[in-house]
Amino acid sequence: MSTKLSIDRATEEKMNDILDWIANKCKSLGVENYDAITFSELSGQSRFSNNSITTVNYLLTFESMVYMSKGKKRIVSLITSTERESLEKTLERLYNSMITGSPDSEFAPLPKGPFNYKRLYDSDDSLLIDNSEYAARAIDAAIMSGAKRVAGSLQGTMQKVMLRTSNGVDTSDIRTAYTLNVRAFVDKDASGHGVAVSTSIKGLDVESAGKQAGSNAKNALSPKQVEQGKYTLLIGRTVFANLVEAIGNSASAFSIESGLSFLPDKLGSEVAVQTFSLTDHGQVKGGVNSRSFDDEGLPTHTTSIIEKGVLRSHLHNSTTAKKWNTDSTANAGLIEPHPWNLEVSSGDSSLEEMISEVKRGIYITNNWYTRYQSYKLGEYSTLPRDYAAYIENGEIKHSVTGFRVSDSIPRQLRSIRMIGKERSWVKWWEVHTPVLCPDVLVDDVTITRAT
Amino acid sequence: MASLQHDLAEEAIKAATSFGAGYAEARLHFNMQQEVAIKNGEFEPPGYSESLGIGIRVLYKGAMAFGATNLLTKESVRELAERVTKNAKASVKQFRKKVALSEEKPHKAKWGAVEKELLEDVEVAKMISSLKEIESELLTSYGASTLPFRLIAINLLLEEKFYANTDGSRIESRVPRVNLFAVLTGMDSGNVVQRFVQTGRSGGWEVFREGRFFERVKEEAGTIVKILKNARKFTPGKFDVIVGPEVAGIMTHESVGHPGEADRILGREGAQAGESYLSSSDIGRQVGNENATIIDDPTIPGSSGFYLFDDEGVSARKRILIKNGKINEFLHNRETASEFSLKSNAAARANQYSVEPIVRMANTYVEPGDMKLDEMIKEVKEGVMIKNFMEWNIDDKRFNQRYVGHEAYRIVNGELAEMIRNPVLEVTTPRLWSSISSKSRDLVFDSATCGKGDPSQGIPVWHGGPYMLLKDMYLGSR
Q1: Which of A66, A362, B104, B117 is most buried (CB neighbours < 10 A)?
Q2: Which residues of A, range 41-60, sit inside 8 Å of B by Cβ?
Q3: Which ranges of B62-123 would DSSP assign to H, the alpha helix?
């Protein structure tokens, strides 16, 4: 018998109480601007390996993010206390820290509400807590497709968010998210990976993810080594999502100010081929990180970051927007603006068509451990893992292993030759921001290996 | 600082047992973090976070379940214990392989890191003035045009725990830590050089002075300027390579510590951080030469990874992972130890109340040798010294790794020669550890945050070592 739970009325009352305590305390302390966000999260997770569940996890947590300012001095905090006395004590400590701090020349007041919010995404009314049966179905699907050993995790979360600010915002939202990450092994050097992401348990296709992992593991058998050099790289969507997330993070004004972005600060710059477009959605159907308002209370919306290869927008909160003399894109993050749900526009090629266009190349389906020599230049390397294949004269020849992609993201964006027409949502251990992503074909990518 | 209500942990394990759990443990876990950061001369708003909650883990007929909440009333804790035990019961069928824990001696203890100046007493103003001093020194010495991007942060971290289990363990602890993190970007005539700096120790605010944090940032900025002005493009080839303690440290962490984690060897991290090139029968396997002795020791005073009891109540000890080139022991928690029919060597750690303890490293290092760096350089006719690194990664079996040099020099006829840009060492694990021909007598550690687990848990560690001379290595170039 499966257990479904939801954020109940008592929990909502508790969240409201917490917001009242924060608001009242901020007022009594003489805070000029406050922003209080309370999160309540229910979570159920099944982890598995060697075809068996290894642990089942359950969480019920409350967190409050409090921002306060007075006379251009600001402070931000994250607190888990749910008791009035200790919460108020912490707020006093915060206030005292704030007033002994440094005034902020970049200070911008919080947006003036109230605002009208429109909800554009779906969520379940309750959360399936003990989801081990679904995890077992993924394991069985992978085994049916040829896997000998299967590992992974299935996590479901339901998150209620309430926001109240000193500038007239008082709103709330709720979302559910399920993510399945499944990896199948046929032997020690042959593995495949599958991902499923959905805003509802009904929409979570555990069998397909298991099947994909199993069949890719089988394809990965008897891998050969690949020589170092330049190749055309067919980048599977799970890998590309990892790079796209880096592009999204690079679009944040905070990243640019910190030297942690390879995107230019000048809008209108050509940064990619004309066929490449990237947008960020504050809320979108299927986007598991959707919310109708940002951390400052602005209604979230869609922002075109790169349109037909041209940089159209950075991501801003009120502070960075003021400094850059523009409007917030409703991507707060009180300190750092961040993407919500990224979407790469689809192309017009099937996977088979892309393979057929490759003279000498490699197809990679998964990666991990992306690290940078310079974020400013976007110079990075990453390790392909799971099924990868050598392609010659338009045909897959054999699986390959033991190599590394060593390149620069800005160069790759200018070298995309084809973009897939099929896309799916990717979010897993190496991709934190959900990305609706196609496969892409990129020319002249440097491949290295240990000697 | 936190008021840990021990009675809630007692209530949790009592309730879990009454609902049918065969084994139960509870961990009250408090984390506080205070951060002040300066970006290009402007202060970011100070950040403060604290979390306090309880994590409960139970075993029911071979099914393991974990749950956590920060609702800290007796009623909520009882409800959580019931929910966690119910989850274990409901999932028994899906545990196709039953989980067991090694038998361990219960302990009653109270321990902590040595601290002179309590973190609770450090005012934001003091952190701000320390950062102002660093920023001003950087600008005076190097100028904003050479170092246009400067992000520097001081972090104070406090971790307090109370642990109880049905075996009888009751353990209380307090570990304060002070860290400095910086991203420095230098630019000159179209050249860009970037460096991440992380340094830290356990202890009170005195660590900021004693750890020479200020001097470290200044030295790093100076090195960036030197690289921008002097470093030349490097021609790939075979060289004898001296790597600095920072490189030796990351090598031990990535290619010895991680593959030696027994949960990875057993496949438990297969879909996330990956598995290992080692298998459970590899104790005694030769993976390096006689100079390769690598240790992980949680009990080093002042270290970032310091602890005396792990998060399963097991007493910590030094672990020799590789002894003279042979695999000597793996890192275990009680679950993996049980599978290996061993006792745990206390590697179970959780970074906050809401996550379960998993197998982790603490402070991992290469045992030093007896030479001086000068003597090692004199040994090299055609070589390269890679003092530290920026880019690095390793495959998920921990076999094929890469380190890209940051501060690096050619060595010609026993002397350091010109500075070079971005030499790339890409090497397999056995080849690396079989190539050490000599080691310096230094032992220098760096602080890092190691990621593992699902949900991902960043855990404080140290890694380090001496200078190591590696013979006949191929170096590429970026």
Answers
A1: A66
A2: 44-47, 49-60
A3: 74-91
pLDDT of residue A97: 93
For B188, counting Cβ atoms within 10 Å of its Cβ (0-12 exposed, 13-18 middle, 19+ buried), the class is middle
Note the residue count of chain A: 451
- Nearest residue to A343 (alpha-carbon basis) of A436, A408, A242: A436
Environment class of residue B281 by beta-carbon count within 10 Å: exposed (0-12), middle (13-18) or buried (19+)?
Answer: exposed
Q: pLDDT tens digits, residue range A332-350?
A: 999 999 999 999 999 999 9
pLDDT band per the 50, 70, 90 thresholds, residue A58: very high
Token code pair at residue B57: 């883990």
Contact B70 A82 (CB under 8 A): yes
What pLDDT is stored for residue A3 in this prediction? 83
- For residue A110, the number of C-alpha atoms closer than 13 Å in the C-beta half-sphere is 29
Strand ordering across the sheet containing B457-465: B326-327, B319-323, B294-296, B363-366, B457-465, B444-452
Selecting from A45, A149, A373 the residue whose C-beta is nearest the C-beta of B391 gives A373
Candidates A57, A187, A411, partner chain B, best to mutate (most B CBs within 10 A): A57
> What residues of chain B lie within 8 A of the CB of A404, using their CB?
393, 400, 402, 426
* ipTM of predicted assembly, 2 dp: 0.96
Domain boundaries, chain A: 4-138+157-177, 222-448
A391-429: pLDDT as tens digits = 999 999 999 999 999 999 999 999 999 999 999 999 999
pLDDT beyond 80 at A1: no
CATH no. for A4-138+157-177: 3.30.2290.10
| Interface test mutation site (partner B, options A374, A403, A405, A447, max chain B beta carbons within 10 A) | A374
- Whether A322 and A329 have beta carbons less than 8 Å apart is answered as no
Which residues of chain B, if any, have pLDDT below 70? 1
Q: Give the pLDDT of residue A2.
A: 73
Give yes or no for a contact between B190 and B379, defined as CB atoms under 8 angstroms apart: no
Give the pair of three-digit tokens for residue A150. 């299967």
The whole-angstrom separation of Cα B380 and Cα B410 is 10
Q: What is the CA radius of gyration of chain A?
A: 23
Sign of CA dihedral B333, B334, B336, B337: positive
Residues 412-451 of A with CB under 8 A from B: 429, 448-451
**Helix or strand run (H / E) with residue B366:** strand B363-366
Identity of residue A81 = S
pLDDT the model gives residue B300: 98
Query: For chain B, which domains are there?
Result: 6-230 (3.30.2290.10), 233-477 (no CATH)
Q: In sequence order, what are the residues at sequence separation of 6 or more whose Cβ sits closer than 8 angstroms to the Cβ of residue B170?
A: B6, B107, B108, B109, B162, B163, B164
Question: Could you read off the pLDDT of B419-471 as tens digits, one per residue?
Answer: 999 999 999 999 999 999 999 999 999 999 999 999 999 999 999 999 999 99
- Is the CA virtual torsion A280, A281, A282, A287 positive or negative? negative
Q: Is the pLDDT of residue A246 over 90?
A: yes
Phi, psi of B103 (to 5 degrees): -75, 125
